[in-house]
Amino acid sequence: LPDGRVLIAGGMPGASGPGPVEIFDPMRPDDGWIVGAVMPHYRLYHSSAILLPDGSVLMGGDPPDVRTDPPTITPHDRYYPSYFEQPRPAITTADASVAFGAQFSIQTANAAAIAEVALLHPGATTHGFNMAQRLVYCAIVSQSGDSLQVQAPPDGTVTPPGYHLLFIVDRNRIPSVSRWLRLHG
Known about the structure:
The protein is an all-beta fold. An eight-stranded mixed beta sheet has the order 7-9-14-13-10-15-16-8, with no helix packed on it. A hairpin with a 2-residue loop joins strand 11 and strand 12. The model has no long low-confidence stretch (mean pLDDT 88). It is globular. The chain starts with 5 loop residues before the first strand and ends with a strand. Helix content is 0%, strand content 43%.
């Protein structure tokens, strides 16, 4: 998630239903895995979960009776993390394309309250595993008025070139809705 927490999407059939979402916060490891909402649908073969630009998570996968004739439609669920219940910072404008190692600007009315700038590489998910999604923080070089100056990652060994979801995260760990940012060499 853009606030740095890790989400696991339950979905396997069990005695108590499809299964809950579980969240781990690496900044609070002693809390362990926190059980969240139970999702309404089972997700078996080709189970997937992917972060969307608004910070919600879309989940899907074949239900237990997918091999029926006619085939069952694969249901999807959308999980809204707890930050959806909070006022969220907003990106007014941001550079759309930035070179590795370059500084770039983000305009936000919340500049003084921003603690982190996160880039999330879009996911490539199948069979229950998201092989490409990765969170990388950018250094905040300066904050003043309604502007942040931010340092892009140094090269493709830190995060690959291409499109990333750009999030700003306030001191309460509440993320904005993202903007697309293209990193290039």
